[in-house]
Amino acid sequence: MFRNLFFAAVLAALCAGLLTSAIQHFRVTPLILHAESFEGAGHSHGEEAVVHEHADGTSHVHEDAAAATTAGHDHGGDWAPQDGFERTAYTVLANLLVAAGFALVLGAVSMLAGLPITFANGLVWGAAGFVVFSLAPAYGLPPELPGMPAGDLMARQIWWIATAVMTGAALLLLAKTRAGWAFAVAALLIIAPHVIGAPAAPEEASAVPAHLATAFAANTLGTAAVFWAVLGLVFGRLNDLFADRTATQYAGKGALA
Amino acid sequence: MNTDATTNAPAHVAIHSLSLSQRLIAGGLALMLGLLLLGGAGFAGDYRLHNGAHDTRHAMGFPCH
Q1: Least CB-CB distance to B14: which of A145, A146, A246?
Q2: Which InterPro entries match (chain B) (predicted)?
Q3: ipTM, two decimals
Q4: Closest partner residue to B11 among A75, A150, A239, by Cβ?
Q5: Which residues on A lie below 8 Å from B1 (Cβ)?
Q6: Which residues are within 8 A (CB) of A49 and not within 5 positions of it... i.e. 6 or more apart?
Q7: How far does the CA of residue B25 sit from the closest CA of chain A (Å)?
Q8: Best exposed site among A34, A82, A200, B31 by fewest CB in 10 Å?
Q9: Low pLDDT (below 70) residues in chain A
Q10: Which residues fall within 8 angstroms of residue A29, CB to CB, at 6 or more apart?
Q11: How many folded domains does chain B comprise?
């Protein structure tokens, strides 16, 4: 059974991930690259430290400049994919892995909660995934471009995960029961992370122009909506297919394993 | 969503024909694998993972540096 779930999840992730990569390539990545051009000295993809030549012929490395470079954009370490094909290839690969991760989590929730993902309700699952993993986290932590000031990374990651878990629990609860108390608990779960508040960005000017940032927020959320819709629908369609086939096999063998 | 449980055919057969322990095992495995992938691609601090998945993290709305 795990095999069916696994194949349906991976195939759905492949479809959604590749389509998303294509949209991203034209609508999202150019904004990231554009934003990086404003990071200027603040952006370190492993550049060398600034070497300062003095008139007397001696030279020394400006440690403070090097430190500032790393602090501005923490890409620590040396390796990063080369801009161009290599960078795009890594992004597509990472997209596919993230897509597979989301699909497996969706499938796991379906399996554990006993709520099937079908072609008929695939769009509902997709919408739920969008709200849980894209919209709710973005409500507190708007999609961020390189070079924009942001709060502590670990704190933001914890808030992101907590928000996704709580919003997901709320939707799952409503999917299982529509009792009055369930609405109250769900509302509480959804609102709480936003009342507590996401880790705030420090009060400093962003190096990135506002119009890039707004375009980025709209385009990433739009792309995510397409991703989740496709993931839910394809996942559901494949589940229907596999279930049909399995049912036929079992009927043939007269066994239910 | 809880009302259509008996109306929609095939995948329901799949899930509802499974025993609880089968569902727990399949669901548990899928959850672990899924979270492992998301953790590696979306959250891990290792600089190779970060730099390789950099644009994906930004584009998918994960917190990134």
Answers
A1: A246
A2: CbtB_put (IPR012667)
A3: 0.83
A4: A239
A5: 115, 121, 124, 174-175
A6: A61, A62, A63, A65, A66, A69
A7: 8
A8: A82
A9: 40-77, 250-257
A10: A88, A91, B55, B59
A11: 1
